[in-house]
Amino acid sequence: MHLNIMEKSELNNNHINSSFQREKWFGHEFLYEFHGFWFTKTYLETTQKVLENFKPHPKDVILASFPKTGTTWLKALLHSITHRYDTKDENSLTFNHPQELIPSLETNLYVQEIPQNNTNSQEFISTKNPQKSRILATHIPYQIFGGVLNSSDCKVVYVTRNPKDTLISLWHFLRKSKNFEQDPWELGAAVDQFCKGIVPFGSYYDHVLAYREESLKRPQKVHFVTYEELKENPKNCVEKMGEFLGCPFEGENREEEIEEIVKICSFEKLSNQEVNKSSELPKVFPLPYNSFYRKGQVGDHMNYLEDEMIEKIDNITREKFHGIGFMYGI
Ligand code: A3P
């Protein structure tokens, strides 16, 4: 028996609705619980596909992050650090959105059946040449993805950002979605859901803590960096990432090389590239490329969150982070 696409999707919908606990999110969206974390229906399906099919190569670099913590910036940085001697790659950030240079597994590569003629995507997830080194991104929590990540010697770079700026960035990002127009995600509700952990790929706190713990246990496998450190001392962070990735900055030009990478990946530079200003929708993502660049600042939450909202988030941060000695996020 062959099912047509509509029938298949109906079957899948019914399966997800009946098999997973769900909570209303906003608009017509629900979030579904999978191994203690929350996913939209689409990303629940694609995460399952990634878990079943993705095999990291030993030389791969996986950029992991919670959404809105600086993933796009890190994509640009990792690409620039690893391609800095590749003359064919010189203008890649001028003509490509960082999402194109480093695709994300569950929000990009596994969103749809990749047509055989899409050689770019096929290449990214091909298992044919395990010696090839790729950089791929993911928001899948370590608690779910750790087994896959540890199935090869691939390296992991994890970026995080303070919880209040992360939430405000997420809130702004979703304001651009159709769902928001129909039924806005009120900021008060967003704060409540964020604190309960019921946001896509949440809980934020559990997400951050597991990758951090792994970076402390195995610093040669997982490199942990924060958005705030990157803002404060980008050169130092770039240098450390070069070392971690096995391509350290050496020789008499090392200072200039680091400075150049920091410059071409800066918010000012990238957000002004035509490709990144585009309001066109990428093929497999529901929001335009320009939605990945907004303000790029530390502390913007102060312009939006009321005192009680700040207190509520800070209380959770104290409990979850400070309680175990991770003095971050307030
Ligand atoms: P804001 O909404 O606070 O401006 P992600 O890439 O994980 O989706 O995160 C998006 C956030 O990173 C947005 O934050 C965006 O503006 C910011 N960002 C994107 N590129 C950046 C860059 N090159 N430098 C600093 N911040 C950047």
Automatic annotation (TrEMBL):
EC class of the enzyme, as a word: transferase
Natural source organism: Buddleja alternifolia
Gene3D superfamilies: P-loop containing nucleotide triphosphate hydrolases
Family per similarity comment: Belongs to the sulfotransferase 1 family.
Name used for this protein in its record: Sulfotransferase
One Pfam family cited in the UniProt record for this chain: Sulfotransfer_1
Enzyme Commission identifier(s): 2.8.2.-
Keywords: Transferase
Highest taxon of the lineage: Eukaryota
One MF term in the entry's GO annotations: sulfotransferase activity
